[in-house]
Amino acid sequence: MKKLFLIAMLCLTFTIPAKADFWKKLKNAVTGTDSSSSSSNSSGKTGGTRGYIRTDNRGNKEIVNPFDKNDFRAEDSVYSDERTSIYRHKDLKGTATKVNYIECRLKPGGFLEWVGKESYYGYVKFPVYKIIGKVPISGCFSRDKSGKEKEINDDLYLDHNLAMYIWDNQLTVTTLAMKNGKAENGYIPWFDSTNPEAEIYINGKKFN
Question: What DSSP designation does 134 have?
């Protein structure tokens, strides 16, 4: 009797896992949840606000605008642009002077597009981004403490945090203003949110 009992127990030991394994495999085949075949998608990105890398059919790497997959920049130009930004930031620290008030009137579509291009759609983290000319900017002026205003250069600089706030939120920016900030040689605005003295305003609302 004991021998029969032991034989029965051994049969159960082998058959139960086998049945469990069979049903598990059958379930995976139907639902497609087999862990051996599942993997994360590393070839692209769906959703999110930051640029991502893809490889074209010639093997070139591109950084893609997550809001428009037909808009992209070549990945191999990142290094030179990063070096330019680092040197530019270093120069700004030496040439920027304090200003009482500066305001820039912006062209919403052109400005946002330029922020995206300069930052590789948020893929990089450069210390400063330069936004240039009449396509994104209508004009800028400064105002001294006496209230006297003058037209200044229609280029401007943005630090990374401010640029990413605008890009991530896809903001329609019509005015960018700053109190107690700095400008390169007094006439190219440097909107630097890391400057503890500066107050930056986007469309009239305080940013920092």
Answer: T
Residue 60 lies in a domain: no
CA distance 154 to 139: 5
Looking at the chain, which runs of residues are DSSP E strands? 52-55, 61-65, 68-74, 96-98, 101-106, 128-131, 137-143, 149-152, 156-159, 175-179, 182-184, 188-191, 199-202, 205-206
What pTM was estimated for this model as a whole? 0.76
| Residue 134 is assigned to a structural domain of this protein | yes
Q: Residue 195 — left, alpha, or beta (φ > 0 → left; ψ -120 to 50 → alpha)?
A: beta
What is the domain extent for residue 104? 77-206
Structural domain includes residue 40: no
Number of domains present in the structure of the chain? 1
Q: In what order do the strands lie in the sheet containing 96-98?
A: 96-98, 182-184, 188-191, 156-159, 128-131
pLDDT per position as a tens digit, 57-69: 999 999 999 999 9
